[in-house]
């Protein structure tokens, strides 16, 4: 990687699969018979808040039963050792990158460990269960919801991500199906700005044709092999 200084890494559900967190699409990707596209919407929250809260309460509780895997740890080593710019953009709402020790990262689709006030936009830590009726510390409204980016909502930090992609010498995509925009379009942006592109995924994805190189296999093997 001699000519590489600025790196953007995009991660998806596939990087957490070996930790035991189910991916969204493919086997086991349904939740109580609902497609993620049907549960993770502002309309679903308005229609059946209890269902949506239960979905996320279970996912939040499951975080306590999983650990970062070799792929998360390899990216944390990259973060610690890399002298150039690095931004790890995760679509995941779990906290396995930070528990592995990564620091230069952001959660573009929100976080299970965070609550969002729909009245004032305040985000705050959400550790255990949040009983219905809990009020926002900033504005006092009882309007807290999971701090998750639903379909039709704008992902977080898009400006920062686009600036990093414009500066990137290398874009690496790990464990994502390329089915959900805008993340699915990052490879095209990276190519447009002249970055090298590498995909590490279990199988070919919707975006594979855009990448200069695709390596197929489990993230727990491919990511350490790439980093070390
Ligand atoms: C392994 C592995 C192992 C397995 N090792 N690999 C039509 C066309 C284009 C766009 C749209 C459209 N209609 C609507 C849109 C926009 C929409 C969209 O893209 N929809 C598509 C379904 C078509 N996008 C949005 O709405 C986004 N916002 C937006 O566009 O804002 C702009 C805007 C706003 C308002 C008005 C106008 C414009 C928001 C998207 C939010 C996504 N949210 C979710 C839910 C998060 C909460 C939760 O976790 O519950 O985010 S959906 C879900 O999918 C989650 C993920 O982050 C996201 C991506 O999934 P990911 O990570 O790729 O997982 P999988 O399961 O799909 O793939 C896993 C991969 O890993 C597979 O390839 C496996 O092979 C691989 N793998 N094991 C390595 N061991
Ligand atoms: Zn508030």
Automatic annotation (TrEMBL):
<feature type="binding site">
    <location>
        <position position="139"/>
    </location>
    <ligand>
        <name>Zn(2+)</name>
    </ligand>
</feature>
<feature type="binding site">
    <location>
        <position position="219"/>
    </location>
    <ligand>
        <name>NAD(+)</name>
    </ligand>
</feature>
<keyword id="KW-0963">Cytoplasm</keyword>
<feature type="binding site">
    <location>
        <position position="136"/>
    </location>
    <ligand>
        <name>Zn(2+)</name>
    </ligand>
</feature>
<feature type="active site" description="Proton acceptor">
    <location>
        <position position="109"/>
    </location>
</feature>
<feature type="binding site">
    <location>
        <position position="120"/>
    </location>
    <ligand>
        <name>Zn(2+)</name>
    </ligand>
</feature>
<feature type="binding site">
    <location>
        <position position="117"/>
    </location>
    <ligand>
        <name>Zn(2+)</name>
    </ligand>
</feature>
<feature type="binding site">
    <location>
        <begin position="201"/>
        <end position="203"/>
    </location>
    <ligand>
        <name>NAD(+)</name>
    </ligand>
</feature>
<dbReference type="InterPro" id="IPR050134">
    <property type="entry name" value="NAD-dep_sirtuin_deacylases"/>
</dbReference>
<keyword id="KW-0520">NAD</keyword>
<dbReference type="InterPro" id="IPR003000">
    <property type="entry name" value="Sirtuin"/>
</dbReference>
<comment type="similarity">
    <text>Belongs to the sirtuin family. Class III subfamily.</text>
</comment>
<keyword id="KW-0808">Transferase</keyword>
<protein>
    <recommendedName>
        <fullName>NAD-dependent protein deacylase</fullName>
        <ecNumber>2.3.1.286</ecNumber>
    </recommendedName>
</protein>
<feature type="domain" description="Deacetylase sirtuin-type">
    <location>
        <begin position="1"/>
        <end position="228"/>
    </location>
</feature>
<keyword id="KW-0479">Metal-binding</keyword>
<feature type="binding site">
    <location>
        <begin position="91"/>
        <end position="94"/>
    </location>
    <ligand>
        <name>NAD(+)</name>
    </ligand>
</feature>
<keyword id="KW-0862">Zinc</keyword>
<dbReference type="InterPro" id="IPR026590">
    <property type="entry name" value="Ssirtuin_cat_dom"/>
</dbReference>
<dbReference type="Pfam" id="PF02146">
    <property type="entry name" value="SIR2"/>
</dbReference>
<feature type="binding site">
    <location>
        <position position="56"/>
    </location>
    <ligand>
        <name>substrate</name>
    </ligand>
</feature>
<dbReference type="InterPro" id="IPR029035">
    <property type="entry name" value="DHS-like_NAD/FAD-binding_dom"/>
</dbReference>
<feature type="binding site">
    <location>
        <position position="59"/>
    </location>
    <ligand>
        <name>substrate</name>
    </ligand>
</feature>
<dbReference type="InterPro" id="IPR026591">
    <property type="entry name" value="Sirtuin_cat_small_dom_sf"/>
</dbReference>
<dbReference type="InterPro" id="IPR027546">
    <property type="entry name" value="Sirtuin_class_III"/>
</dbReference>
<feature type="binding site">
    <location>
        <begin position="175"/>
        <end position="177"/>
    </location>
    <ligand>
        <name>NAD(+)</name>
    </ligand>
</feature>
<feature type="binding site">
    <location>
        <begin position="12"/>
        <end position="31"/>
    </location>
    <ligand>
        <name>NAD(+)</name>
    </ligand>
</feature>
<comment type="function">
    <text>NAD-dependent lysine deacetylase and desuccinylase that specifically removes acetyl and succinyl groups on target proteins. Modulates the activities of several proteins which are inactive in their acylated form.</text>
</comment>
